[in-house]
Amino acid sequence: MTTTDTNSTEPNRDRGRSRDVVVPTRLYKTVTVFSTLLAMVGVVGGFALLDVATRRASAPASEVNVPLALLGLAVMGGGGAVYAYATRFRASGMGAGDDEPNGGPDDG
């Protein structure tokens, strides 16, 4: 077995970090604030739409407004996607987590 075989998990860890987008601190703060706000509004708004579509979860299945319920689910998914995408940004001074080259396993 070669050293390449034993370290087969290393390329997978590097692949996840390559999607990070390093931006200036001012832009990072702006992206973080507005993406979190948009994600929260999306998830809460989606639940509100779902609540209206099902009449506070008391409507029989035949009376559920299906298009409105699907719209609520889509809005919730959109809010989650915005949040997940926004977590890819980091400021230039931020560390890269466990992949930080100057930190060891006992640095914390």
Automatic annotation (TrEMBL):
Keyword Acetylation: no
Stretches with biased composition (Polar residues): 1-10
Key words, A-Z: Membrane, Transmembrane, Transmembrane helix
Region: Disordered, residue numbers: 1-20
InterPro entries xrefs: DUF7315
Pfam families: DUF7315
Organism expressing this protein natively: Halospeciosus flavus
Name this protein carries in UniProt: DUF7315 domain-containing protein
Annotated DUF7315 domain residues: 19-100
Coiled coil: none
